[in-house]
Amino acid sequence: MIELYKELRQYGKVKINEPLSKHTTFKIGGPADLFVIVDSTDSLVEVLKFLEGSGTAYFILGGGSNMLVSDEGFRGVVIKVKAQHAEVEGETVIADAGCITVAIAQLSIQHSLTGFEWGVGVPGTIGGAVRGNAGAMGGEMKDSVGKVELFRDGEVITLAHDECEFGYRTSGIKKSGGVVLRVWLDLEKTEDKTGMKKALEHLKYRNSTQPKGYSSTGCIFKNVDIIPGPKGDKNRELLLTHFDEQNEKIQQFLRVGKISAGWLVEQAGMKGAQEGNALVSDVHGNFILNKGGATADEVISLIENIKTKVYTKYGIEIEEEIQIVGR
Question: What is the value of pTM for the model shown?
Fold first, then answer.
C-alpha cells in the first residue's frame, strides 16, 4: 500500500485509512484504504487511467449524499472529486462534476437562466446528480442535460442527451459504468425574477416537509412506478385493491404515475421505527435519520424491515434509491 500511496500523491492529497463517515451526509461508514482528493478534471482523468491500468479497485465520492457506506469501509481507493470550475455560455451552464448542485442552481439564477431552480434543494455534486438522474419538485436532471463528458474504458468520451439513457433515478452511465467529468446544462433565458421566486418556493417547501436536526442521506427509497406497463399495472392494481380510487391522495398518485414511497412507509406504520440509533423520521417516511452513532448494519436492518412490512401489508415492493457501498 505504501507504493500505491506514493504513486497517488502525484494526483492529489492522499490519506491512509480515512474514515468515510467524515465525508458522507449520513455520517456513517468505515475507513477507505486510501483516500485521494483531486481538484481538477485533468487530475481526475489521470488518476482514473492509473488505477484502471493497475487493476486497483476504486470508488468515486462526490458530495457524499444518497449513499450508505458499510461499517467495514472500502477496500481500495476512494477518489474525492473537488473539480469545481463552472461557467456560463449564453443559455448553457458548463460545470465540472465536483461542482455542488446547489451552487450550479444559484449560478443559473444569477445569470437569469430558468429551468434548474429546483436544484437549490438537491444535495451533493452535479456529477452524482447526472449519474442518478436526481430530481426534486417535479424536475429531473434529464430535463436540463445537453451533453456529458465521461471517462469510460480508459478514454474521455462525450455523450449527447439521448445517449445518457436517463430513467427514473438512473441513467445509462449508472448502469454501464463510467465517471462523469463535466456537464452541460441547456437552460432558457428569462427577463424577470421568476427564477429566484421559484427557488425560494422550492426551499420553503423542502424545509417544511423534510426532517431537520439529524444526519441523513436523503430519500432512502424510489417512488413506486404505476405508469402503464407490466410492473406499473401490477402496482396500480395493488394500490387500488387497498385504497379508495376517489381518495385525493390516490388521485394525485394516478396523475403523476408514481406512489410516494414515504407515504407507503407511513401507511405501513413504520414512521418512528428504530433499529439501534437509526430512526425512520416522523416528519417524512422516506428519511432514515442517524440519531448519533448509528451503524450501517442498523440502517440496512431497518431498510429490510420497512421493505418487508410494506410488502406484507400491500404486496408492493419498494426499492432503495441510495447506493450501498462496500456491502
Answer: 0.92
C-alpha cell at 83: 473539480
Q: How far, in whole angstroms, is CA 75 from its chain's centroid?
A: 22
CA proximity to 85, closest of 153, 38, 151, 117: 38
CA torsion 10→14→20→21, rounded to 10°?
Answer: -130
- Considering only CA atoms, which of 36, 42, 46 is closest in space to residue 12? 36
Determine the Cα–Cα distance for residues 142 and 168; give it in Å rounded to an integer: 9
166 exposed, middle or buried (CB, 10 Å; 0-12, 13-18, 19+)? buried
Task: Enumerate helices (H) and strands (E) in the chain, giving the number of each.
Answer: 10, 20
Q: Give me the tens of pLDDT residue by residue for the chain, a chain 327 residues long.
A: 889 999 999 999 999 999 999 999 999 999 999 999 999 999 999 999 999 999 999 999 999 999 999 999 999 999 999 999 999 999 999 999 999 999 999 999 999 999 999 998 898 999 999 999 998 888 999 999 999 999 999 999 999 999 999 999 999 999 999 999 999 999 999 876 677 777 777 777 777 678 888 999 999 999 999 999 999 999 999 999 999 999 999 999 999 999 999 999 999 999 999 999 999 999 999 999 999 999 999 999 999 999 999 999 999 999 999 999 986
CA atoms in the 13 A half-sphere facing the CB of 172: 13
- Residue of 300, 314, 304, 202 lying closest to 259 (CA atoms): 314
**Domains by residue range for the chain, with CATH:** 2-81 (3.30.43.10), 86-202 (3.30.465.10), 212-325 (3.90.78.10)
Secondary structure E strands in the chain: 13-19, 31-38, 58-61, 67-69, 74-81, 86-89, 92-96, 113-114, 135-136, 139-140, 145-152, 155-160, 179-186, 188-189, 224-225, 258-259, 274-275, 278-280, 288-290, 323-325
Return d(Cα 323, Cα 310) in angstroms, integer.
Answer: 20
